[in-house]
Design a protein that fits this description.
about 220 residues; Jelly Rolls; 2 domains; mainly beta
Length: about 220
Protein backbone atom coordinates (compact mmCIF):
# COMPACT_ATOMS: atom_id res chain seq x y z
CA UNK A 1 0.00 0.00 0.00
CA UNK A 2 1.04 3.60 -0.57
CA UNK A 3 -0.29 6.67 1.28
CA UNK A 4 -3.53 4.99 2.37
CA UNK A 5 -3.56 6.56 5.85
CA UNK A 6 -6.41 8.99 5.21
CA UNK A 7 -6.04 10.68 8.60
CA UNK A 8 -2.68 12.08 7.48
CA UNK A 9 -2.18 15.25 5.45
CA UNK A 10 -0.23 14.62 2.24
CA UNK A 11 1.59 16.97 -0.13
CA UNK A 12 3.30 15.51 -3.21
CA UNK A 13 5.04 17.61 -5.87
CA UNK A 14 4.39 15.20 -8.70
CA UNK A 15 6.71 16.98 -11.14
CA UNK A 16 9.64 16.02 -8.88
CA UNK A 17 8.70 12.32 -9.00
CA UNK A 18 10.22 9.84 -11.43
CA UNK A 19 8.04 8.02 -13.93
CA UNK A 20 7.46 4.32 -13.26
CA UNK A 21 6.68 1.64 -15.82
CA UNK A 22 3.21 0.14 -16.20
CA UNK A 23 1.98 -3.19 -17.62
CA UNK A 24 1.66 -1.47 -21.01
CA UNK A 25 4.68 -0.33 -23.06
CA UNK A 26 4.84 3.45 -23.59
CA UNK A 27 2.52 4.10 -20.63
CA UNK A 28 4.14 5.43 -17.45
CA UNK A 29 2.81 6.58 -14.10
CA UNK A 30 3.56 8.40 -10.87
CA UNK A 31 1.55 6.81 -8.04
CA UNK A 32 0.20 9.21 -5.41
CA UNK A 33 -1.82 6.72 -3.38
CA UNK A 34 -2.68 3.10 -4.04
CA UNK A 35 -4.16 0.10 -2.30
CA UNK A 36 -2.30 -2.47 -4.39
CA UNK A 37 0.09 -2.29 -7.33
CA UNK A 38 -2.42 -3.18 -10.05
CA UNK A 39 -5.81 -3.08 -8.32
CA UNK A 40 -7.97 -1.30 -5.77
CA UNK A 41 -8.10 2.36 -4.74
CA UNK A 42 -5.48 4.24 -6.79
CA UNK A 43 -4.65 7.88 -7.58
CA UNK A 44 -1.83 8.64 -10.01
CA UNK A 45 -0.43 10.82 -12.76
CA UNK A 46 -0.29 8.78 -15.98
CA UNK A 47 1.63 9.51 -19.19
CA UNK A 48 0.89 7.99 -22.60
CA UNK A 49 3.65 8.38 -25.15
CA UNK A 50 2.59 8.91 -28.77
CA UNK A 51 0.79 5.83 -30.16
CA UNK A 52 0.61 4.19 -26.73
CA UNK A 53 -2.21 1.71 -26.07
CA UNK A 54 -3.48 0.16 -22.87
CA UNK A 55 -5.27 -3.19 -22.93
CA UNK A 56 -9.04 -3.22 -22.56
CA UNK A 57 -9.90 -3.28 -18.87
CA UNK A 58 -12.90 -2.89 -16.54
CA UNK A 59 -13.37 -0.39 -13.72
CA UNK A 60 -14.87 -2.38 -10.81
CA UNK A 61 -15.53 0.77 -8.76
CA UNK A 62 -15.26 3.44 -11.44
CA UNK A 63 -12.60 5.60 -13.06
CA UNK A 64 -12.18 9.40 -12.92
CA UNK A 65 -9.84 11.22 -15.33
CA UNK A 66 -8.71 14.79 -15.89
CA UNK A 67 -6.64 15.29 -19.05
CA UNK A 68 -3.70 17.52 -18.15
CA UNK A 69 -1.89 17.62 -21.50
CA UNK A 70 -2.37 16.23 -25.02
CA UNK A 71 -5.33 14.20 -26.27
CA UNK A 72 -6.56 11.01 -24.61
CA UNK A 73 -8.71 8.57 -26.61
CA UNK A 74 -10.70 5.36 -26.35
CA UNK A 75 -13.26 3.61 -28.54
CA UNK A 76 -15.88 6.15 -27.43
CA UNK A 77 -14.07 9.33 -28.48
CA UNK A 78 -11.16 11.76 -28.19
CA UNK A 79 -10.66 13.92 -25.10
CA UNK A 80 -8.41 17.01 -25.35
CA UNK A 81 -6.55 18.71 -22.50
CA UNK A 82 -9.04 20.01 -19.96
CA UNK A 83 -11.45 17.09 -20.36
CA UNK A 84 -13.03 15.68 -17.20
CA UNK A 85 -14.31 12.10 -17.45
CA UNK A 86 -16.13 9.71 -15.15
CA UNK A 87 -16.58 6.07 -16.17
CA UNK A 88 -18.95 4.37 -13.70
CA UNK A 89 -18.45 1.04 -11.96
CA UNK A 90 -18.18 -2.01 -14.22
CA UNK A 91 -17.65 0.01 -17.41
CA UNK A 92 -14.80 -1.03 -19.69
CA UNK A 93 -12.67 0.63 -22.38
CA UNK A 94 -9.49 0.38 -24.47
CA UNK A 95 -7.59 3.65 -23.94
CA UNK A 96 -4.87 5.01 -26.20
CA UNK A 97 -3.29 8.23 -27.40
CA UNK A 98 -2.12 9.08 -30.91
CA UNK A 99 -0.22 12.24 -29.98
CA UNK A 100 0.60 11.42 -26.35
CA UNK A 101 -1.06 12.77 -23.21
CA UNK A 102 -0.74 13.21 -19.46
CA UNK A 103 -3.65 12.37 -17.14
CA UNK A 104 -4.69 12.65 -13.52
CA UNK A 105 -6.45 9.35 -12.78
CA UNK A 106 -8.46 8.09 -9.80
CA UNK A 107 -9.46 4.41 -9.90
CA UNK A 108 -12.00 2.44 -7.87
CA UNK A 109 -13.18 5.33 -5.71
CA UNK A 110 -16.83 5.80 -6.75
CA UNK A 111 -19.41 5.71 -3.99
CA UNK A 112 -21.95 2.92 -4.17
CA UNK A 113 -24.87 4.03 -6.33
CA UNK A 114 -22.92 6.66 -8.26
CA UNK A 115 -23.53 5.56 -11.85
CA UNK A 116 -23.31 8.92 -13.62
CA UNK A 117 -21.07 8.97 -16.69
CA UNK A 118 -19.46 12.39 -17.22
CA UNK A 119 -17.63 13.90 -20.20
CA UNK A 120 -16.95 17.64 -19.80
CA UNK A 121 -14.59 19.75 -21.89
CA UNK A 122 -13.72 22.42 -19.34
CA UNK A 123 -12.10 24.58 -22.04
CA UNK A 124 -15.53 25.31 -23.53
CA UNK A 125 -17.64 25.56 -20.36
CA UNK A 126 -18.45 28.87 -18.64
CA UNK A 127 -17.15 29.78 -15.19
CA UNK A 128 -19.60 30.69 -12.41
CA UNK A 129 -19.08 33.40 -9.81
CA UNK A 130 -17.83 32.07 -6.49
CA UNK A 131 -17.03 33.62 -3.12
CA UNK A 132 -14.96 36.81 -3.32
CA UNK A 133 -13.06 36.92 -6.59
CA UNK A 134 -13.13 33.16 -7.13
CA UNK A 135 -14.66 31.56 -10.21
CA UNK A 136 -16.01 28.00 -10.00
CA UNK A 137 -16.79 25.29 -12.55
CA UNK A 138 -18.77 22.42 -10.95
CA UNK A 139 -17.93 19.04 -12.47
CA UNK A 140 -19.69 16.42 -10.35
CA UNK A 141 -21.51 15.89 -7.07
CA UNK A 142 -22.98 12.86 -5.33
CA UNK A 143 -23.99 12.24 -1.70
CA UNK A 144 -21.86 15.01 -0.20
CA UNK A 145 -18.91 14.56 -2.57
CA UNK A 146 -18.19 17.60 -4.77
CA UNK A 147 -15.66 18.04 -7.59
CA UNK A 148 -14.96 21.37 -9.29
CA UNK A 149 -12.40 23.61 -10.90
CA UNK A 150 -11.67 26.82 -9.00
CA UNK A 151 -9.93 29.81 -10.57
CA UNK A 152 -8.18 32.21 -8.20
CA UNK A 153 -7.31 35.74 -9.38
CA UNK A 154 -3.88 37.09 -8.46
CA UNK A 155 -3.72 38.21 -4.83
CA UNK A 156 -6.92 36.41 -3.74
CA UNK A 157 -7.24 35.32 -0.09
CA UNK A 158 -9.94 32.92 1.15
CA UNK A 159 -11.25 32.69 4.70
CA UNK A 160 -9.97 29.95 7.02
CA UNK A 161 -12.21 26.90 6.73
CA UNK A 162 -12.51 23.24 7.71
CA UNK A 163 -12.95 20.29 5.36
CA UNK A 164 -15.84 18.04 6.36
CA UNK A 165 -15.09 14.75 4.65
CA UNK A 166 -11.65 15.99 3.67
CA UNK A 167 -10.30 17.86 0.67
CA UNK A 168 -8.12 16.90 -2.27
CA UNK A 169 -6.45 19.44 -4.59
CA UNK A 170 -4.41 19.17 -7.77
CA UNK A 171 -2.81 22.47 -8.83
CA UNK A 172 -3.42 22.81 -12.58
CA UNK A 173 -2.00 26.28 -13.23
CA UNK A 174 -0.12 28.84 -11.17
CA UNK A 175 0.92 28.37 -7.55
CA UNK A 176 -1.40 27.64 -4.61
CA UNK A 177 -0.51 28.67 -1.05
CA UNK A 178 -1.66 28.40 2.55
CA UNK A 179 -0.09 28.79 5.99
CA UNK A 180 1.54 25.36 5.61
CA UNK A 181 3.43 25.93 2.37
CA UNK A 182 3.65 26.80 -1.32
CA UNK A 183 2.39 24.35 -3.95
CA UNK A 184 3.52 24.67 -7.59
CA UNK A 185 1.82 23.28 -10.69
CA UNK A 186 0.80 19.60 -10.48
CA UNK A 187 1.27 19.43 -6.71
CA UNK A 188 -1.29 17.07 -5.15
CA UNK A 189 -2.64 17.77 -1.66
CA UNK A 190 -4.86 15.51 0.45
CA UNK A 191 -6.24 16.97 3.69
CA UNK A 192 -8.16 14.76 6.15
CA UNK A 193 -11.64 15.15 7.61
CA UNK A 194 -12.02 18.37 9.63
CA UNK A 195 -8.56 19.67 8.74
CA UNK A 196 -8.30 23.45 8.41
CA UNK A 197 -6.30 25.94 6.37
CA UNK A 198 -6.26 29.55 5.17
CA UNK A 199 -5.51 29.45 1.41
CA UNK A 200 -4.39 32.28 -0.85
CA UNK A 201 -2.49 32.94 -4.08
CA UNK A 202 -0.11 35.58 -5.38
CA UNK A 203 -0.63 34.80 -9.08
CA UNK A 204 -3.65 33.57 -11.04
CA UNK A 205 -4.10 29.91 -10.14
CA UNK A 206 -6.46 27.11 -11.17
CA UNK A 207 -7.03 24.06 -8.98
CA UNK A 208 -9.03 20.85 -9.31
CA UNK A 209 -10.80 20.30 -5.98
CA UNK A 210 -12.67 17.34 -4.52
CA UNK A 211 -14.33 17.56 -1.09
CA UNK A 212 -16.46 15.35 1.15
CA UNK A 213 -15.09 12.01 -0.07
CA UNK A 214 -12.58 10.96 2.60
CA UNK A 215 -13.33 8.82 5.69
CA UNK A 216 -14.80 10.66 8.69
CA UNK A 217 -12.62 8.75 11.17
Amino acid sequence: MLNMQFQQRLVIESQAQKWQTSPSPLVYRKPLEREAKESGHTTSIVKYEANAHFASHPHPKGEEIFVLEGTFSDEHGDYPAGSYLRNPANTQHSPHSVTGCTLFVKLNQFQQGDQQAVNINTQTRDWLLGIGGLQVMPLHEFEGEHTALVKWPAGEHFQPHRHFGGEEILVLEGEFRDEHGVYPKHTWLRSPHMSEHNPYVLEETVILVKTGHLPLV
